[in-house]
Amino acid sequence: MFRILTVLFIISFSNFAFGQTLEEIVDTYVEKKGGKITLTRLNSMKEIKKVVTTDVTYQTTTIQKGPAYKSTLNYEGIEITACYDGSQGWATNPITRKYEVLEKDDLGDMLNQIEDFPDPIFKSYRNQYELTKGNDTLINGRKCYEISILKPDYVFMKNNIVGKKDFYIDKENYQLVKSVEYNANGKLSIYYSDYKEIDGVQYPHTQKAEINGIPSYTSTTESIELNKRINSALFSLDRQ
Predict the structure, then answer these.
(1) What's the whole-model pTM score?
(2) 2-239 classified as CATH 2.50.20.10
(3) I want to staple 208 with a disulfide (CB 3.0 to 4.6 A). Which of 87, 114, 191, 235 is the partner?
(4) Mind giving me the DSSP string for 18-50?
(5) Domain coordinates of the chain in residue numbers?
(6) SS3 147
(7) pLDDT per residue over 92-128, tens digit each?
């Protein structure tokens, strides 16, 4: 009986310590990111990035406001847009260059971007998705915590996308160093660096992506605006 009680106590204590450790990591991460109040009050963003791949260089403009999202890719004067106005999604047909209404199965990626704004760890914790702490690991020589977020799988472009994502947080400064997710192309790893404070929020200005370990692209933030007035007409298909 004593052994059983001892084992139960150890298990209970371990679970308690594990939970507290995970909570402390997330709380500290959020505080270093900008704090709960600042992140909660963040309701809009406009970000312009330069993206360099092995073949081409192009610019992207992403605008978010509440439940609306719009991303535009500009390559040598050609614009490709994907947008969700809060109830309907639409995008540029790359062949006809005309706007078309998207089917429900094509909205998964944008809806995830909206739900994760302004930060996937903060929002997932706040929305009570399952978070777990993995083993500490080294990422480019930096000791990191590993946190996994388990969200429902979803469909994007008729492909099943795994809802689980892994995040690696620097143990010293609590900045996000790397994220890993799985999409139709395989394992997508993104490395974050060059953090700068924008209106009280720490944002990485450089992201380097790999697909299945092969370099895919590097994006550099050219400008970012937070909580600025954004005209809702930007998201409306009828106003384009």
Answers:
(1) 0.86
(2) yes
(3) 191
(4) HHHHHHHHHHHHHHHHT-HHHHHH--EEEEEEE
(5) 2-239
(6) strand
(7) 998 999 999 999 888 888 998 999 999 999 999 899 8
